[in-house]
Amino acid sequence: MARDSAIPPDSFEEILAWLNPDRELAGQMYVQLRHDLAKLFIWGRCADPEGLTDEVFDRVAKKVHEVRPTYIGDPRLYFRAVARNLIKENFKKIKTHLSFEDVDQSLQQISETEDDIEDMEECLHSCLGELRADKLELILGYYAKQRQAKIDHRNELARRFGISVETLRVRVFRIRACLEDCIERCLHSKAHRK
């Protein structure tokens, strides 16, 4: 994916200031965030992790002036949310633009990655088993339903835990990030044993 990523200098400066008031720390956080987002796209099996990482920063740069003043919490969570939306968009594009020739290639890739999928499922179950009961209930409940039922269920979960829906999202994001790290370590360990 060839890109002409031109973040306006003032938007880039505001992104850095949003990450951390100390410019040196902000620069380090920026580099680490780029690395983390690229890993997220790789983990999401996206074809162009670097291009998609650029797209995240482009999108945030367009909104940073309006989002930053009212955003509460770690700004990196906002970047990751944009990245997750891009992963979803990427899969929708793939589904709608898949040709018959691509189907043969996809089937071949699926058969090649069947062991990978099995390993991923084993690691997921193992990592879920390491969660405390309340965290397990929260993460499983958060993703339990579809459409309007999902929204209603998430509101009910927030009420049950005595927190706001926004806090619920942050907690789920943190649990999910821990799960992703756990799964990545597990897969890495399995790869070294093969």
Description of the structure:
The chain is mainly α and 194 residues long. It folds into two domains: 1-97; 111-194, Arc Repressor Mutant, subunit A (Orthogonal Bundle), CATH 1.10.10. The protein contains nine helices and no strands. The radius of gyration is 19 Å and the shape is globular. The two termini are 33 Å apart.
Describe the secondary-structure layout.
Layout: H1 9-19, H2 23-43, H3 49-67, H4 75-96, H5 100-112, H6 114-129, H7 133-142, H8 147-161, H9 165-193
Helix pairs in contact: 1-2, 1-3, 2-3, 2-4, 3-4, 6-9, 7-9
Shape annotation: globular
| Count of the separate structural domains | 2
Number of helices: 9
The profile of the biggest β sheet is:
none
Order of helices and strands: HHHHHHHHH
Mean pLDDT: 80
* Backbone CA Rg: 19 Å
Given as residue ranges, the uncertain stretches (5+ residues, pLDDT < 50) are 97-113
Distance between the termini: 33 Å
**Helix-residue proportion:** over 70%
The class by helix and strand makeup works out as: mainly alpha
Q: Using DSSP, what is the number of strands? A: 0
Q: Hey, roughly how much beta strand do the residues contain?
A: under 5%
Give a brief description.
The chain has helices at 9-19, 23-43, 49-67, 75-96, 100-112, 114-129, 133-142, 147-161, 165-193. It has 194 residues and is mainly alpha-helical.
Features:
194 residues, Arc Repressor Mutant, subunit A, mainly alpha, 9 helices
